[in-house]
Automatic annotation (TrEMBL):
This is Branched-chain amino acid ABC transporter permease. The keyword GTP-binding does not apply. The keyword Nucleus does not apply. GO terms for molecular function: transmembrane transporter activity.
Amino acid sequence: MHQALLTLGFGLVAAAILSLSALAFTLEYSVTNVANLSHGEILTVGAYCAYLVQQHGGGVILSGLAAAAGGGALALAVHNGVVDRFVRKGIGGLPTFIATLGVSLVIQNLLVIIFGASNLGYQIPQGAPRNVGPFLWTDTEIQIILSAVAITALLYVIIQHTRFGKSLRAVSQNRSLASVSGINAHRVSALTWLLAGLIAGYAGFVLAESVGTFSPYSGFTFFLITLTAAVAGGLGKAVGTLVGGVIVGIALEFFGGYLSAQYNLAFAFAILSLVILVRPRGLFVGGRRSVFE
C-alpha cells in the first residue's frame, strides 16, 4: 500500500506535466482544427531557452519565463508562417498535417546543429524529498505540481471570464460564423497559439527539470504521449484533455513502476488504440465541440 501511494505521487507529477502539454495541444487544435505535429518541438525549444538562461546564472523563475517566452514565440511563428496560410486557403487534413511534420523535422535538426545531439541537463538543485501527506516529493516536484495547478486555474479564468476567452470559444465552435459575427478569427487564432506556446514552453522546461536531461528529440517523444492524453480526453476539449492527461500520466507511472518504464510509449499507444475503438471522439466528449464546454 505504501509503495502504491508513492507511485501515485510520482504519477501526479507526471500527470501535471502531461496535462500542461496536452492542454496546449488541444488549444492549438481548437481554433485551427489542425493537429500540430511540431508541438513537441515547442516543448524542446522551451527546455533549451531555459537552459541558456540557467547557463548565464538565471534561477528557476527566470528559466521558466524564458522557456515560456521561447515556446510562445515558436508557436506563433508556426501558426503565422505555416498553419494559418493553409487555414485561410481552406486546405486542411493531410497537407497541413505533413507541413507541421516538416516543421518538426526542421526544428529538430536545427537544434542538433546548434546544440549537438547529446543530452544536456540543468544545474538546478532538486531539493531533498519530503513527505506531503502520503506522498514523497522533492521541492522541484512540488513546484511542478503547484505551477501546473496555477496555470490551469489562470487558463480557466481567461477562457471563461474574458472577452478574448469568449471569442476563442466562438471560433473553436464555428470559425465561419464567428467571423461573420465580427470576430477577427485570425487574431484570435494567433493569440490562442501564442497562449498555447507559452504553456507548452514552460511544460518543456519542467519536463526536462523532472527527467534530469533532455535532447533535441525529447519533446517529440513526449508529444506522442501528449497525443494519447489529448485524444483520450477529447481532442479540442480542454476539460476532457486535462482529465485525460491525469489518467494517462498516473497509468504510465504505475506501469513503469511495476513493470518497465522503457515500454511506456507502447503502453500509451495501447491506451490510445483502446480509446479510439471504444470512444473515437474521446472519453469526455459530448455533442458540442466548444473548447471549454
